[in-house]
Amino acid sequence: MLKKLSLAALALVFSATTSMAATDITWWHGMSGKNGDVINEVAKKFNAAQTACNLTPVSKGTYEEVLAAGIAAFRSGEQPNILQVFDAGAATIINAKGAVIPAEDLINKAGYKFDRNAFIDGIRYFYADASGKFVGMPFNSSAPIMYINTDALKKAGVEAPKTWEEFEAIAPKLMAAGFIPLVQSQLTWEFTENFFSRNNVQFASNNNGYDTTEGTVLNVTDPNLEMMFTKLKDWSDKGYFGYYGAGWSDNQKVFEDNKAALWIGSSGSFGGLQKTATMPFSATFLPYWGSIKGAGTNSFIGGAALFAMSGKSDAENKCVADFFQFLTSAEIQKFWHEQTGYVTVTKAAYDLAKKEGWYEKTPVAEVGIKQLMLPAGQWSKGYRLGFYPQIREVMEREYNKIFANETSVKDALSTIKKEGDDLLARFAKTSG
What is the per-residue pLDDT for 415? Predict the structure, then answer.
């Protein structure tokens, strides 16, 4: 990516590319509502900044629907130029032989100098290959953070916990103050994937799946994860932890309605929460276990990246590279960050937002970025697991059974491992 290049300079670069009719490119994405509107605005800004390219964004439904549509379109030769793929689907698109052009290669070929170090540390590796080369371009990135009902903690006379041990100590006081101590949004992303990252525990073999698909297996029966879910079940039985199902909004609403003291949610949720919360709130980092050696590292990102689909003309590929440059400029990243709540993916955009006082106005917006910039651990860079959306479904099913008293933690994790490993083995046979 270009370093500290202004939008005006970018416009000159792009407009100098050609004086011919604009080259049309398409961008399939999975965002609706306010975020979809912001995507349309970003596209308008890009089209207005230059004359060589015309970008058309198209919403294709949910993340899962976008991925399925993109793969089907590629097989029929009707793929878009840019495909938004969510975190759990990264392995699917990356391992689809010949489906994408690595973003780093595309940008370098277009004559730009790509700088991996320009990206926030906790974002840099998630959509890269084992060597660190960017395959996807990070876009809407988020981190799981702890939202705080400030009045609830004040009433209970406690401070926000940094560790889960500290949470366990204050939970009775939060209950006594009339609040559900803790709720969360997604047990897969926040208490499984990011459990491994935040506590620096290996998630899967073969370097968390980055090195090869062959023989990759899950580490979900790790004693530390078993301890985490045993604690969650115990907390649930005691009233410390409220679990309302796998749906995101099912758990968020309890916090919004001033019934819960703490909520583990996405850093990208704060914008909407400002409109829906019925009480003042703040945020802090996702807790970790002080009892686990090496814990307290950064977290995995959530959200999605943009992938440049192959099989397109040189002119179209150049336009995609131009758009990626535009999208990662400090000004546009800052715009996206402030309008949606997703974190900036580059350090320059973060510095610009900080310089202009954005975090003085909205300090919660900085929490996710600061968490992603925490020291990294051996196992905090990400994961690359095939058929992972299906593996998440297995996890959600078994986690629901735990809290419904239909299975034990040990048996649930064993089932997840067995079915998950089977899915990984199937993916290894079919990928490419």
Answer: 98
Which pLDDT belongs to residue 5?
53
Q: Is residue 166 included in any domain, yes or no?
A: yes
Task: Produce one character per residue of 268-281: b if its CB has 16 or more CB atoms within 10 Å, e if not.
Answer: bbbbbbeeebeeeb
Rg value, the chain, Cα: 22
Query: Locate tokens 């981190």: which residue?
Result: 143
Q: How far is CA 168 from CA 175, 177, 228, in A?
A: 11, 15, 12
Q: Tell me which residue range forms the domain holding 308.
A: 7-142+301-372
Between the CA of residue 377 and those of 17, 202, 250, 373, what are the distances in Å? 42, 10, 33, 12
Please indicate, yes or no, whether residues 124 and 160 belong to a single structural domain of this protein. Answer: no
| 3-state per-residue secondary structure call for 90-108 | HHHHHCCCCCEECHHHHHH
CATH of the domain at 100: 3.40.190.10
Whether residues 246 and 354 share a domain: the answer is no
Residue bearing tokens 């080259």:
23
Residues near 242 by beta carbon (within 8 Å), at least 6 away in sequence: 180, 182, 183, 236, 251, 254, 260
Q: Indicate whether 269 and 155 sit together in one domain.
A: yes
Chunked mean pLDDT (size 10), the chain, 432 residues: 53 53 96 93 98 98 95 95 96 92 97 95 92 95 97 98 98 98 95 97 97 97 98 98 84 94 94 89 98 96 96 98 97 95 96 97 95 96 95 96 97 98 96 66
Residue 377 lies in a domain: no
Distance of CA 344 to the CA centre of its chain: 12
Residue 1 lies in a domain: no
- Residue 228 is predicted with a pLDDT of 98
Q: What are residue 261's DSSP bridge partners?
A: none
Distance CA 128, CA 384 (A): 10
Asked whether the whole model's pTM tops 0.85, one would answer yes
> Quick one: which of 87, 81, 84 has its CA closest to 67?
84
- The CA distance from 378 to 207, in Å, is 9
Q: Are 169 and 159 in contact (CB under 8 A)?
A: no
What the block records as the tokens of 63 is: 């993340």
Among 391, 392, 412, 416, smallest CA distance to 403 is for 412
What does the pLDDT read at residue 13?
Answer: 54
Query: 150 lies in a domain?
Result: yes
Q: What is the pLDDT of residue 272?
A: 84
